[in-house]
Amino acid sequence: MSKGILKFLMLKIISEEKITGYGIIKRVEDHTGNKPSTGSVYPMLKSMENEGWISGEKVDDKTFYEITDSGRDKIKEFDKVHNDFIKKIHQSVVMVNETFEKGGHLVYMESIGILVHPLVEDVVKLLKDGVDPVKISGIISKARDELKKLWAG
What we know:
mainly alpha, Arc Repressor Mutant, subunit A, 2 domains, three-stranded antiparallel beta sheet, 5 strands, elongated
């Protein structure tokens, strides 16, 4: 799992309840089927704490983390980027569908797969590698603008 996705998932989990690092590891594993290492989780918790997204409170030998207002704002920002990204993918699929439509029927379903599938695979790989979703969204937006120019003729 990419660091960016793990960090966002951890922040979402912390937004739901006060929770320990171990609790976060278990919840991530429940959500994804993959257990993140303590070597990934605890440095990210420290990073999010330094960024002001979460705060930790020591109780006995455990630290319980909770989200801050800044963390809630960050979730809203991530959610907006995610929603914009999904909308753009949907718009791209619609545009491809309209491009290959003839007489109300799709001429070649394979054409959609040829055009869209590699793009989706590349985006997923970039997100897994921790590339900023805002950068990816900007590139897709530019590509769509260029495609619209071709379409307009």
